[in-house]
Write a structure and sequence with these properties.
It is a single chain. This protein is of the alpha/beta class. It has one domain: TIM Barrel. The chain contains ten helices and nine strands. It has helices at 21-29, 61-68, 76-79, 84-92, 106-111, 118-128, 151-158, 179-192, 228-246, 263-278; strands at 37-42, 71-74, 99-102, 138-141, 167-170, 195-196, 198-200, 216-223, 250-257. The model has no long low-confidence stretch (mean pLDDT 95).
């Protein structure tokens, strides 16, 4: 994942910003006594990207990956519209409790740019529904140059997804993070009960808006292949502890790297820390 990559990460202030004031209110509004649901994973299971992660002789990468992590940020569905048969195959290769977080097809977001997308949205939604209980939350990532001036298109497209369909949205253009634009966007997500994705990457600190729109946090963490990566993850533990006290019910946390082979190591560190802090028993991936 090259998005937000910088040449000198040591020069970046990686301090997590304060929460948006609305975050505490939305968490407290949705607070329950339900157990904390935590899903942590990587973005890919390809052997070429995660070199050294798979034991010698591994025949099926997804099957092994799913013994080490409880979730995957599924980017394959972005590059090609998923077919229900493939979704069923993926589902059957994974154990009970595993969750998929499929990315909405680029046909919808990048090629058609949310124009005339009722049919492909229905096709995508129907296909990934075959994950059944293993569907965590799909996510829609807008093109970098999709701006708030096209808010009406976004509003209309999000309303095309089936009612109750679990969806998170990531905006990237800097104009979305101006206060008025962010308010309008987040109010829409709150109305539709969709999650606002938080992105932690070196070159785009504005995407750390810290504005949740529901009782779940969907975080895409992009390491810089630099020693600061571990400290950054430790800072996230403290913020998640705060959110949990305020009412956070679900955490979806996916670790990326510009050189992905280190992603399982970082994710493993984060899982260990989460287990210790919250009394969880998530599998810590083998090294």
């Amino acid at each position: 994942m090259k998005f937000g990559q910088v040449e000198h990460p040591e020069a970046v202030d990686f301090t997590l910003p304060p929460d948006a004031p609305q975050t505490k209110a939305i968490l407290e509004k949705n607070k329950t006594n339900a157990p904390f649901e935590v899903y942590i994973g990587c973005a890919k299971w390809n052997r070429s990207d995660l070199k050294g992660f798979y034991p010698r002789g591994t025949k099926d990468e997804l099957t092994y990956y799913a013994t080490q992590f409880n979730s995957i940020e599924l980017n394959a569905t972005f590059y090609g519209m998923p077919k229900w048969e493939q979704v069923e195959t993926w589902r059957e290769k994974t154990p009970d409790g595993f969750k998929f977080f499929p990315k909405v097809s680029d046909l919808i977001t990048h090629y058609r740019r949310l124009n005339n997308v009722d049919e492909p949205i229905a096709t995508f939604s129907n296909a990934v529904s075959n994950f059944q209980e293993k569907l965590g939350m799909a996510f829609l990532q807008l093109h970098d140059n999709f701006k708030p001036k096209d808010f009406a298109k976004l509003d209309a497209a999000l309303r095309m997804f089936p009612q109750g369909f679990p969806l998170a949205v990531e905006v990237r253009n800097a104009e979305w993070f101006a206060p008025d634009n962010l308010d309008r966007f987040c109010n829409l997500l709150e109305e539709l009960q969709m999650a606002n994705i938080v992105v932690d990457t070196a070159g785009r600190r504005d995407m750390l808006h810290m504005r949740l729109t529901g009782p779940e946090a969907f975080v895409r963490y992009v390491g810089a292949n630099h020693p600061t990566d571990v400290d950054r993850l430790d800072d996230w533990i403290e913020r998640i502890e705060k959110w949990r006290a305020e009412g956070l019910q679900k955490l979806y946390f996916f670790v990326h790297q510009n050189i992905e082979l280190e992603s399982p190591l970082l994710a493993g560190h984060f899982i260990k820390k989460m287990n210790e802090k919250f009394g969880l028993s998530l599998t810590i991936p083998a090294r």
